[in-house]
């Protein structure tokens, strides 16, 4: 086992090994190409609370009321958020947008639904 080889993408097993041009997992017998793995890592898919794939520029609505730090009122369920941007935000916040009445903020994809 080499420390430089990635874990198996199927079972996350740590005992991967090289077999020719492929990587193989002895635990689940999954075979994959190292080039395919790097392409999959660069292709990030962000899904909303119900499983719809989100893209830059989409319009979403908030699915549950949430408190906003530093604001006097809460962000209510059903609030529409237009023209979202997918980002690598702080923690698990992966959406950046301007919300009417609140200004720019980062949201979690798990609390929005694509319209």
TrEMBL record:
Top-rank taxon, per record: Bacteria
Residue intervals of the Protein YjdM N-terminal domain: 4-33
Entry-linked InterPro entries: YjdM, YjdM_C, YjdM_N
Residues covered by the Protein YjdM C-terminal domain: 46-114
Protein family according to the UniProt entry: Belongs to the YjdM family.
Name of the protein: Protein PhnA
Protein's organism: Zhihengliuella halotolerans
Lineage, broadest ranks: Bacteria, Bacillati, Actinomycetota, Actinomycetes, Micrococcales
